What we know:
Strand order of the largest sheet: 1-2
Number of helices: 7
Distance between the termini: 55 Å
Shape: elongated
Radius of gyration: 28 Å
Oligomer: single chain
Largest sheet: 2 strands, antiparallel
Amino acid sequence: MPKLRRVMAWFIDFALVVAAACALAVLTFHRVSALVTDVPELATRGGLDLLGSRGDVIGTSEHFGLSLWNKAVLYVEEGFGLLVLATFLYQWSCLALAGRTVGKALLGLRVAPLSAPAARRARAAAVRAAVTTAADVAVYAVACVLLVEGHFVLSVLVWALAVLLFLANALPVLFPARRSLADRMARTAVTGLWLRAPGGPGAAGVPGGPGAAGVPGGPELGTPATMPMPPVRTSWTS
Length: 238
């Protein structure tokens, strides 16, 4: 159950990233379309380039086409850059201000620092957001940019690195410790209903936890509270 809650929370957050990616893709498409459909500007630029080329029509055409392609590639790269920046700002601002993203809030989870002073929580949020962004979006974006730039082999290698980084961040959640690579790098843990930080006061067997001797488990830890029983009268005589 805790694993399913974390997976569902990740899906919600990733759905928000996909929505942002779709919006940026539409914006980039319109920018590229405007670049190649603005006939008056294209005619003006082409005429000026031809006048400055001393009649070299072929060279001017190649230069003009390459200029348009480079500008279109720049628009695509800017779109990927904005996606990476938006993902990082979303993760960092949610963790720094509320200690949880939208997905974790909907599933009753939060990200708690492990023995970190309050002054270092913003830094922990930034580190966790950076690792999460790199694993979910940033490295894939670099691979796509390399592919657009024409570096096919390097793009495939970076894509494989992106898959490995994603698995390294996601698979540890399935193990008993349930701490992702981002949690380990930022020294944080995902807590919430039925979940407690490793070694924290809510952990079973830890002093102060529900498994400690003489300390009853409270209802918020998933175990019923121990209530004192009233004395039973054995005689009705006064």
